[in-house]
Specification:
The protein contains seven helices and eleven strands. It is of the alpha/beta class. Helix 4 runs parallel beside helix 6.
């Protein structure tokens, strides 16, 4: 049974099946960071977030710093047969910041000005986007010719997306031992991880930080299947993922 929505907050569904049983949604216009190791479902979460909005008639923007646009379309098409059509008709715009894009540097590195220029062109291409994905921050940081510029780039992107009132989903690799600027500045922090019980490895979902969302940190079972990600109560006790956990 879906959780009753009792506040005046405008909630949005980020698209994960079953999550509505635990939270009423995410406040519209907030910034979300999804972190996890390879294979935990980060990119699928990003695509599912946009697919949910696109099916509701929302304009969506996907800025890919890692996967090529062709891979994005293929992955989405494997999950939802109408996903490629949503890209083709412009409901979902894909901005290429991967190594296949054209850059001033022959080594596919960008300075902060070029990175922001590409991002701004994408925002202008989908000016009414209500859902924006940047996948991933880790790859973006590696692509910068000066890694110390990442902080400035991230803060500028965050300011721009919040200024537009868009709900933005960032992805990043791994679960850090200590929080950084991205963890502090986003409104919601989601961990996708693996946990072992006896000899069985299980994917898990943890809403580690959630502003204005009435849910205590709780580990949920994460499923990846045809149609995307879903969550449910975990059938056994697993150690939550905390900063600095042993």
């Amino acid at each position: 049974m879906a959780m009753q929505k009792t506040s005046n907050i405008e909630w949005i569904d980020i698209g994960l099946d079953g999550l509505e049983n635990f939270i009423p949604g995410i406040p519209k216009g907030d910034a979300i960071l999804v972190r996890g190791e390879p294979g935990t479902g980060k990119t699928i979460c990003c695509l599912q977030f946009l697919y949910k909005g696109a099916k509701q008639g929302e304009k969506c923007l996907y800025i890919t710093t890692e996967e090529t646009p062709e891979t994005v379309m293929r992955t989405g098409g494997e999950l939802w047969s109408d996903f490629p059509k949503l890209i083709q008709n412009g409901t979902i715009k894909v901005v290429n910041l991967s190594i296949t894009a054209s850059y001033a540097s022959e080594y596919c590195l960008v300075d902060k000005a070029e990175a922001m220029d590409i991002v701004f062109k994408g925002l202008r291409a989908q000016p009414n986007a209500s859902r924006i994905v940047i996948d991933s921050l880790s790859s973006l940081a590696r692509r910068l010719s000066n890694s110390e510029q990442f902080r400035q780039v991230f803060m500028k992107i965050l300011m721009e997306t919040k200024g537009r009132g868009a709900t933005t989903l960032f992805s990043a690799e791994g679960i850090p031992e200590a929080p950084g600027i991205t963890e502090y500045l986003v409104d919601h922090l989601i961990y996708l991880d693996y946990r072992k019980h006896d000899v069985v490895w299980t994917r898990v979902f943890l809403l580690r930080k959630a502003r204005s969302v009435p849910m205590k940190p709780q580990v949920l079972k994460l499923n990846i299947k045809a149609g995307g990600l879903s969550v449910e109560e975990i059938p056994f006790s697993l150690k939550p993922v905390w900063f600095g956990s042993d």
